[in-house]
Amino acid sequence: MAAAGARWNHVWVGTETGILKGVNLQRKQAANFTAAGQPRREEAVSALCWGAGGETQILVGCADKTVRYFSTEEGRFQGHRHCPGGEGTFRGLAQVDGTLITCVDSGIVRVWRDNDKETSSDPLLELSVGPGVCRMRQDPARPHVVATGGKENALKVWDLQGSEEPVFRAKNVRNDWLDLRVPIWDQDIQFLPGSQKLVTCTGYRQVRVYDPASPQRRPVLEATYGEYPLTAMTLTPEGNSVIVGNTHGQLAEIDLRQGRLLGCLKGLAGSVRGLQCHPSKPLLASCGLDRVLRVHRIRNPRGLEHKVYLKSQLNCLLLSGRDNWEDEPQEPQEAKQVSPEDTETDELWASLEAAAKRKLPDSEPPPGAVQPRRRKKQRPGSTST
Amino acid sequence: WRRPWIRACSKGKKGLKRKATAEEPQEAAVAENGAMESGVQPPKAAAFPPGFSISEIKNKQRRHLMFTRWKQQQRKEKLAIKKKLKKEREALGDKAPPKPIPKTIDNQRVYDETVVDPNDEEVAYDEATDEFASYFNRQTSPKILITTSDRPHGRTVRLCEQLSTVIPNSHVYYRRGLALKKIIPQCISRDFTDLIVINEDRKTPNGLILSHLPSGPTAHFKMSSVRLRKEIKRRGKDPTEHVPEIILNNFTTRLGHSVGRMFASLFPHNPQFIGRQVATFHNQRDYIFFRFHRYIFKSEKKVGIQELGPRFTLKLRSLQKGTFDSKYGEYEWIHK
């Protein structure tokens, strides 16, 4: 049942125990999906991204350097692919034109050909970005452009179709007022839509905007927030502000035009590990180490919409960007029933049905009506059967 | 002109009864001058304008009088209701409805969805593979380092000594202004499994940092109500070297499980029942009460206990994933 309804899940969350959880906020249900049927800590999910073809496939990057393919239509794992090379977990996963881009902690970025998922062929392209990478992000507008950044690893923008050198290499800010070098720790990167700009949030509480189009390699804008390292960041639908989260569970919306704090969101009690905003609705999904997935409304009014307790520590999430939040009624199942081979039997059944309808005109409702399925409100976190 | 209702109450109840006769003619006289509509009746039934409250009377004595009268009336009414209910119950006898359960804070609590179900496989797997797994699989036995904040005073030092007698295989070291981040790698290399730091403020211990060592979570507690051994009344003799039993009460939620396991991993696995000593961590409304007792079974059902050892209450302030790193560590739970 859960597998059948997996396509209507609004949020997909990866946990430290290797379970992929699909949460349906309309029905208030959460379902667990595991590749092996049992949770395994070696498969801790460290990166999630949408696969090819809309939102029908999810690429799950696990701690044992495998990328597993999960189909939301069927609600099960379809295959996996071993992506060796480098040390550490995946810090970024992306897909472009039938190729898969992976980046690991030690700075090896590899582009793999996405054929027959079981074969682990040699990578098409390999780049060494520098050690201590915390995030690799793909530009949604130009899918062959990726940005990487990490601890003592400055922001670099790479064009995978271009040369082996980065297109843009950020420069560290000037020494501070004590003439000491300011340390670098880029925890999350986002590309701003509509221009070439990038935003990063650092572990030293800074939010910086870089503009590769300008001659200046230093940040164009810098803002600080809070007293604790910022761990996750997401852009708001309008594109003028970002929402950042820190290790104390504080979420803040920072305006990028002025670099000022617009407001905070309450509720999280643990370090924020994943944040994503919906592309059109003012909804923000956040997950963290306190084992709860929260969906906040960002404006009019700002507050908590949904809160789902998922029993494991949550590492990353994917929010479905679709516009209709409701489930589709049983249309897909009815469509499957008609098959061209059974036309003769269909005629037979049609005649029988007509006879049955003449006898009992009022017993059955007309077949085309939407039958609302009343489901009991199940406790979230119930395992899929 | 005086307001008639104040005059009606100004003498007090006794006064009114004694001087009722004397006052009536006075009041009647006053009533003719003053407002007629306020019903100058015998002092008992004074009519007040609507919206009048006792707190508006400026005179403290009169206000107090009015209040005590009102309170006595309320008490009388309450007693009358109780009596009536009791009579009704007796009249019904067996058919009386069961007595309603009194509302307590524990009854009225909203159901906490994070309460762990004992049959839950996901949580069971999580606990089987977390940082305490090596303790619960009996692969490591605890070795504790107890220290304080810098330059501790007498109370804190004595508390550390007493704690080290309560927790077996623990060592107290003087903190010579060393940074915790430098102590921790040294502890790990010397096979310590836990680090306890007792924080002190103004000569009393007020905080406890418990860090599980190889890579484990760090819990920061607020400590209050610390009683050393000599301050405990009717206590038994000092605890012996036997390994105590542990009681962990009410650690039901997921966070409670993590904290409970932290406490459990401080003590060795096999308690020596000969010693008849037990350490209790009782969680009630998010306060954890620590007690150390010696028990003796006087008969099959009767137990006597003697309290030994220090006693304190803890309240969790934060649980941090990883060893102590308050600036850059990631927090699993923070008290907000």
From TrEMBL, chain A:
Chain residue ranges for the region called Disordered: 323-385
Example of a GO biological process term: ribosomal large subunit biogenesis
Cellular compartments annotated: Nucleus, Nucleolus
Main location: nucleus
Keywords: Methylation, Nucleus, Phosphoprotein, Repeat, WD repeat
Assembly mode: Isoform 1 interacts (through WDR repeats) with NVL; the interaction is independent of RNA or pre-60S ribosome particles. Isoform 2 does not interact with NVL. Interacts with MTREX; the interaction dissociation in a late stage of rRNA synthesis is required for appropriate maturation of pre-60S particles and depends on the ATPase activity of NVL.
Name of protein: WD repeat-containing protein 74
Organism field: Crocuta crocuta
Gene that encodes the chain: Wdr74
UniProtKB/TrEMBL annotation, chain B:
Subcellular location: Nucleus, Nucleolus
One Pfam family named in its UniProt record: Brix
GO molecular function ontology, one term from the record: rRNA primary transcript binding
InterPro entries referenced in this protein's UniProt entry, alphabetically: Brix, IMP4/RPF1
Positions of the Brix domain: 142-325
Keyword flag rRNA processing: yes
PROSITE patterns reported for this sequence: BRIX
Keywords for this protein: Ribosome biogenesis, rRNA processing
SMART domains: Brix
Predominant cellular place of this UniProt entry's protein: nucleus
Gene3D superfamilies cross-referenced by the UniProt entry: Probable brix-domain ribosomal biogenesis protein (3.40.50.10480)
Protein purpose: May be required for ribosome biogenesis.
Region listing for Disordered, in residue ranges: 1-47
A GO biological-process term: maturation of 5.8S rRNA
Record field: compositional bias (Basic residues): 1-19
Name the record gives this protein: Ribosome production factor 1
GO CC annotations on file: nucleolus; preribosome, large subunit precursor
